[in-house]
Design a protein that fits this description.
alpha+beta, 7 helices, five-stranded mixed sheet, 2 domains, Fructose-1,6-Bisphosphatase, Chain A, domain 1, D-Maltodextrin-Binding Protein, domain 2
């Protein structure tokens, strides 16, 4: 099967899941807390059910890992990594900055390599897609990272406070914010990795710093940013491994080394 055909299928899944989530947003019912700082809604589970169902039907041999269900199937060279609703806190409060993330990665001896990325932002009416080596597109139009080459003119986003192991993460975020604010024009905090990654890919942001990530947070946006001409690495400048707890930096590429320097 051609990569373009797989991408079109993943887009259709993301559209179906996005339409479902939008329809459910007005009558979510009770919102559950996975931990004292993180929420999950019925829409997360329904979006996940839709996407997993399609993968199991169309690519039964492929591995699947999602935020809510975890490892659904393992052992394949090809693995789908899914965040059914990224930015659930935003979603649950009617803030349109949330999205659905689907990535297909190839597991090699050198590590996991994203080869297809689909990020649907239903609240903004935008669909971002990328295939390895073919560029990044938003609603079918080619997009590119920014050309800002002066760090003092840069706009950077930094992940939310109060998530996960919040005491440790917030301490690191405070250091990051301070350094970023001293060197850049603005520091934003949008509360959704797929929003921040997509905004970096389309040149609205010059960088996005994520103090702690999981594969479903970053697998798709890493490919979006790189195929748009940018760069995605760990804080030490090495390639992303798409492992739990990874610190990730996404940028327009031009400012990447400078961002790494101020994050030290």
């Amino acid at each position: 099967m051609q990569v373009d055909d797989i991408l079109q299928r993943a887009q259709s899944w993301a559209n179906e899941a996005g339409a479902s989530a939008l329809a459910m947003q007005k009558h979510l019912g009770s919102i559950k807390f996975k931990n004292p700082k993180d929420v999950v809604t019925a829409a997360d589970f329904e979006s996940e059910r839709i996407i997993i169902g399609h993968i199991q039907n169309e690519f039964p041999e492929h591995s699947i890992r999602t935020e809510e269900a975890g490892h659904v199937k393992e052992g394949s060279r090809y693995e789908w990594i899914i965040d059914p609703v990224d930015g659930t806190v935003n979603f649950s409060r009617g803030i349109p900055l949330w999205g659905i993330s689907i990535a297909l990665v190839e597991n090699t001896e050198a590590g996991a390599k994203p080869i297809i990325a689909v990020v649907n932002l239903p609240g903004l009416g935008k669909m971002f897609t990328a295939c390895k080596g073919s560029g990044t597109f938003a609603n079918g139009e080619h997009v590119h990272v920014s050309m800002v080459d002066d760090l003092t003119k840069a706009i950077v986003s930094n992940g939310d406070f109060n998530v996960g192991d919040w005491e440790k993460i917030n301490a690191q975020n405070l250091k990051n914010f301070k350094s970023e604010a001293e060197h850049c024009t603005r520091v934003k905090c949008y509360g959704s990795a797929v929003i921040e990654g997509a905004f970096t890919a389309q040149g609205s942001l010059d960088g996005f710093v994520m103090t702690m990530s999981y594969p479903w947070d970053i697998a798709a946006i890493a490919l979006l940013v790189e195929e748009a001409g940018g760069k995605a690495t760990r804080f030490d400048g090495k390639p992303l491994r798409f492992e739990d707890g990874e610190q990730a930096l996404f940028s327009n590429g031009i400012l990447h080394d400078q961002f790494l320097q101020i994050l030290k």
